[in-house]
Amino acid sequence: MVSGMRGTRKRPNWINKTIWETMCACWDTEEAKKMSQIYSDARMSELDGLGPHIHLSGPKSYNQIQQDLEEELGRPVNLGEVFMKTHTRPDGTYVDIKAEKIAQTYAKNGQEKLAELETEAYTLSDCASRARDLTVDDYTTIFLQSTEKDSRGTPYGVGSLKDTLLYGKRKQPGDTSSFVAIQEKLKEAQRKIEEQAAYNERLEAEHSRAAAEHSRAVAEQKDKIENLSMVEKYLRQTDPQYLDVVATQSAAPQGTPPPAAS
């Protein structure tokens, strides 16, 4: 408001004439002009040739935009999503080169993290478990690693949300731990329990199949033995030559071939 009055030099009704003249005299000093130019140059400076900070948040704070997004989507949103909302035009283009560069880096780092989790899950599990999903805190950490920081370490593109961060994670009022993170950890624990239960079920099914196969083989062997016993009984009752062969085999030394049939 004051900067606007300084440019127009139109005194508003709520400032009396004496104070207004003092303010104008101060603005006209060489020192004030020099400081004004320094601040103007700083605002319009091009960090690494990427230009000044441009966003589309309008009069809304980043906190309000985040709350609106969470209400719209029905879930917590991370810093990266707020950044995309405030730095992307309706046609999908970015507000400037800097925003585009950060968004591309953010997407690349996110994909690399997902690939890392998939590799870890494949290596450490029985190859049946899937990689865990990234949490809101994970995405926030990835965004903070992807964006730029000013000389005071303030992340670019987070606006008033910088005050909601604690060690790169979203703070919850009155609690140092994130309620959302706890919920996600509970979901992760439940997922692991379900995966273990499914694995145990598969293992039990395999054992059941092996036991059934063994029982079938034993039953087949038993049937064969019973059939051979019936054949032997029949031959003993109906074929005298069979009895002679059996008697000869029993009396002959081991390895002696049976006599030729007459």
UniProtKB/TrEMBL annotation:
**Highest rank taxon of the organism:** Eukaryota
Q: Which UniProt keywords apply?
A: Coiled coil
Q: Which InterPro entries match?
A: Probable_transposase_24
The name of this protein is Transposase-like protein
> Which Pfam family would be a valid example here?
Transposase_24
What sections of the sequence does the record tag as coiled-coil?
186-220
Keyword Coiled coil on entry:
yes
